[in-house]
């Protein structure tokens, strides 16, 4: 299990938290003007990168506050945690070791990318 | 054994992903649609992804007509697959039981049974006494959520996961399909919304039709062609125990307490856990997910309380918003997707491969997979199978 450093309570086990999916998804300003396709994109389509992912968490079994995190989904390493009021960190702030879509070596499969 | 050739410069069809679904697609393309110049490209070894990581449960008791037709098409193919491929699938129709633990479960399951029967499926209701006769070791009364009944599909069961990949690989290779292992597809090459081939770790391979069947990594590959898919990738875990004498001769699943178990022919208990609550590609899940499942298993079957678990593993599943798969063309000409199987793709292997091969060959969906298109996420015709998917997402 990964540990998450709640900006309000400190480091706790992941099972205390609930993941809220991709962060920084903006509700369209004028929903009435959207086509069905655009609305579908907003409702159902989310980024699913192998690598750097901006996501939301809520400390369900704690302070119940929401916050954002940047996590490398290939290793589950949490790179940054920031409050909702903080500015979104640039992707260039983080280093990714992924060289290919699978992030795996040329030969072989499986647990190249493992949790620390 | 199948051959391991070097890739040619180009093919008529390239299938990305050498699991059961991908190899099966190659098999049906060669057998039913006359394609001979096909390559299956796999980044690891055959069946080393989710084909080798699932709990091998096969059933078709899904709620909606579209799903019932798709999954039962698969069960029907399973029933003759050993003969068709001349390779023992060890397909065992020992029945699949879904337990009800509360009033809501009972109502939902009875509704599903009625829907199943209208679609000609063999699902039926069992009361607690009948369950006890089939599975004497189950504790139905003395637990937090007592067992009140179950939906039972006798035609359901299990099969040997490796055999599916190997059987399809052998027979498609005999028909001239190139199976290229240890070759990773890095990106999909397109030109003006038309597919040109794939860039791999063994160089560029050209094709006018490319089919992606890469489970958890499908959306990552799709992105290289500029296609966005409504998928989220998460680890799903399973575990097996030390082998013991036969104690359970059917498959028992419980949605409410989240435990499902069957016994393999070697005698190991095969136990399925849930998905982690966050996106990840690590092929490992959190320990708390395993703990929750084991807790429920021990309560349901006190006899397993002191057993040792031999190993535990995770696979990356691609989950769709409506818990139904996508077997579809897309806006890029010649690019096809078979993905979004989430936590329950193994059961569908032959059926999925069969209709996907049709979709690729004819450039239009088979009647059975017509509804499983990408457009449903904008026109609203979702096929919501969260109730029948049986694994918590």
Topology:
The complex is a heterodimer of chains A (116) and B (393).
Chain A: E1 3-6, E2 10-13, E3 18-22, H1 36-44, E4 52-58, E5 66-72, E6 77-82
Chain B: E1 10-16, H1 20-33, E2 38-41, E3 57-58, H2 65-85, E4 96-100, H3 103-118, E5 124-127, H4 128-134, E6 149-153, E7 157-158, H5 161-174, E8 178-180, E9 185-190, E10 195-200, E11 203-212, H6 218-224, E12 232-241, E13 251-254, E14 259-263, E15 269-275, H7 287-300, E16 309-319, E17 326-329, E18 335-339, H8 349-362, H9 376-379, H10 386-389
Parallel strand pairs in B: 1-2, 1-11, 2-8, 4-13, 11-18
Antiparallel strand pairs in B: 3-7, 4-6, 5-6, 9-10, 10-11, 12-15, 12-16, 13-14, 14-15, 17-18
Helix pairs in contact in B: 1-5, 1-8, 2-8
Overall body shape of chain A: globular
Instruction: State Rg of chain B.
Output: 21 Å
Write down the oligomeric state: heterodimer
Strand percentage of chain A lies at 25-35%
Number of helices of chain B: 10
CATH superfamily of chain A: Folate-binding superfamily
What count of structural domains of chain A? 1
What's the average pLDDT of chain B? 95
The biggest beta sheet of chain A is recorded as:
4 strands, antiparallel
**Can you list the strand order of the major beta sheet of chain A?**
3-4-5-6
Largest chain-chain contact?
A: A-B, 42 and 40 residues
Q: Name the CATH class of chain A.
A: Alpha Beta
Number of strands of chain A: 6
> Any idea of the CATH topology of chain A?
Folate-binding fold
Global shape of chain B: globular
- Give a short account of the largest sheet of chain B: 8 strands, mixed
Compute the average pLDDT of chain A. Answer: 87
Order of helices and strands of chain A: EEEHEEE
Computed structural class of chain B: alpha/beta
